[in-house]
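Project standup — Tuesday

K.O.: blocked on the structure for the chain from last sprint. Re-posting the sequence here as requested.
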Amino acid sequence: MRYSHKVHIYRRGSQLRFTLVTSILAVGLLLLFVRLSNVSLGTLFVDLLASTYRVVIAYLISLVISVLMALIVTRNRTFEDFLLPVLDVLQSFPSFAILPIAILWFGASDVTAILFLVITILWPVLFNVVAGVKNMQVLFASRGFPGNCHRFDYRLG
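H.V.: unblocked you, prediction finished:
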């Protein structure tokens, strides 16, 4: 099926220029920081790589948990009625409240940082996946998709 619409990331040239200028400014400020501090450029990039590793691992864990929870929640109306309010309450707890407990259990390690990031990333991804699945069901039902659209079949193929 062909789609007639095109995706435009930058609608105007000014948006592209703004992105390039801010990227160059960020690299310039990073190099200025290295120049003014006692940190070597190699140490800085090793630390940036370690932080990027933690964020990617936490995002992947959050993505798997969120998609599984969203599919469970949207699969059955009873689960949705029970779990969504519970998840909404859990979302309201600040991520920093878990940090002291995690430090006591795991120490100041990568596990603590990844756990903190997972808790922070989990909720927006979860609720957006739930909204996406619900909108997908409504879209399929409005387009005359055959079958029982309120219990969407998640199998691929």
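K.O.: great, moving the ticket to review. The radius of gyration is 22 Å. The longest helix spans residues 41-75.
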